[in-house]
Amino acid sequence: MTVMEQRGAYRPSPPPAWQPRTDPAPLLPDAAPYRVLGTEAAAKADPELLRRLYTQLVRGRRYNAQATALTKQGRLAVYPSSTGQEACEVAAALALQDRDWLFPSYRDTLAAVVRGVDPVQALTLLRGDWHTGYDPYAHRVAPLCTPLATQLPHAVGLAHAARLKGDDVVALALVGDGGTSEGDFHEALNFAAVWQAPVVFLVQNNGFAISVPLAKQTAAPSLAHKAVGYGMPGRLVDGNDAAAVHEVLADAVRHARAGGGPTLVEAVTYRMEAHTNADDDKRYRPDSEVEAWRDHDPIALLERELTERGLIDESGIVRAREDAEALAADLRARMNQDPVLDPRDLFAHVYAEPTPQLREQQDQLNAELQAEQEGTHR
Amino acid sequence: MTTVAVKPATMAQALTRALRDAMAADPAVHVMGEDVGTLGGVFRVTDGLAKEFGDDRCTDTPLAEAGILGTAVGMAMYGLRPVVEMQFDAFAYPAFEQLISHVSRMRNRTRGTMPLPITIRVPYGGGIGGVEHHSDSSEAYYMATPGLHVVTPATVADAYGLLRAAIASDDPVVFLEPKRLYWSKDAWNPDDPQTVEPIGRAVVRRSGRSATLITYGPSVPVCLEAAEAARAEGWDLEVVDLRSLVPFDDETVCASVRRTGRAVVVHESGGFGGPGGEIAARVTERCFHHLEAPVLRVAGFDIPYPPPMLEKHHLPGVDRILDAVARLQWEAES
Question: Beta-carbon neighbour count of residue A32 at 10 Å?
Fold first, then answer.
């Protein structure tokens, strides 16, 4: 007797445990990156917000230029510039409320600065006098994260904890296109969706992971499409259109705040500088490609909108530039002072209390420092 | 005088009780991991916690160790006190990046502003007939990572006391649970007021004059058995249970070795690059003039953990310990 005969008549049916799941259609991103500037949607944008975005973009560009210059002068050990990506950096910071949290990667010092972190403290990591230069709780900005995508589960955990405590807090986590290949990207998005955590993931797709282009990174239809597999909405936005990025992020933050769960946003942008000052981008991309993006510059796009609609005049533009120069001058002046270093700090925060072993090593270092001071060092 | 019979409790029960008491004492304590909720954990250590405290306090997570520890980091950033369960020693490896790059150094990176009070419970070690990837002794990896405390109990009372201390600690603690001692029993009354053991103190489990066996976790009962067997050979062995690998209790260990003049370090972990090398070096550096013989190590072989039918040849047992004791240059005394 066959198994089928034993079990009775053969009735075609779905597997017993199978149940219809979420309809993927509403989660799908738009076919093309969402834009506001130069489209009909621009008329609906708040002029005050546009002016605010513009001021911050100009500041951000100047900040990037100044940090790059400080690196060439030896004042920073390394600087991963966000030149060209200022719309994402600025919009991410401005889409959040004070009580919300930002989780930046190492390229996102600008977002931290827009959120209120002192630029010198934001650059401490890259100057090299300590790892995190600011108190993360002061502006609710997590430490700049270097191992790619590893800050994403932190954002999920924090947002989840806030919700468990009944606090109205959203976490926004920044990651790059390369970071989407990391396992932590996958795990963070999965946890966020399962827990319906109030978190927004912003992928700045700047075209390159150091030298490796997106085509070698993924075969997905878009990075935003990855959201669908986790059961969260994916949004695709023009990353150089500050008004569009802000609108999409503000929507996602509102959605998360209302208990709607996480959103994945892919912002299509371009890294105008090399990966860092230590990189040579001529080895992997032609100048013509970089040039093409100059016509899609985030500041130029917004400036055109503001001028054409009479929302800003020449004096407004000059004021924004002066404001940016003041930021740069202050940064230059303070970064040109040598940081105060105390080698004894090395042992201060390894544990709440140093272990006996660390105390011994601390004594050794202290003796070395004293000998050095007295000139009796071997 | 009447004696009240104390029902023996297992180490697993003491661990459950420690979690329960910690959760009851502090609403910030959250237990999370694979199968820790409805099932109560594959070793039943979290049994009943989800029922008593709710799914939000004892959470079945998706099956992803990096995600478990990574989200625990975020929860700790927000003031919670996560107790993470890694299902088995070898399944904790995917979480190493979170552990090493974030958990161990967040306090340091942020100049003390962002401590991470996370307890990471890891069942470890062999001797339970587990198939591949279920019996690793991974303590050396943790010990080599600055910023972590590494703790392992060998008795039922210590399982309770040390786990309470780990959860109360403002530093991350890797809490290694010797799997084969989960069902070991002691006369331990869970309703007696319990001591919270300070992390970082070793304890002399058996006093002796001839030599010191320095050990921890699953090897403690083996060393005590070896010490009993050694009496027949005329050796009176002292057994030191480290309890805490980081911080290391040089004081207790060295006091013992200075008394006995001889020492053997015993652990399941491989010898090459294992904890025993560090311990032997520390003892030699501090007690050289008291030593009658080189500090010896009895460790697992430097091989991938063997299949269960062969593990008895790998695990340090009484005979191998006694062989080492025999090599402690006793002829020098005669």
Answer: 10
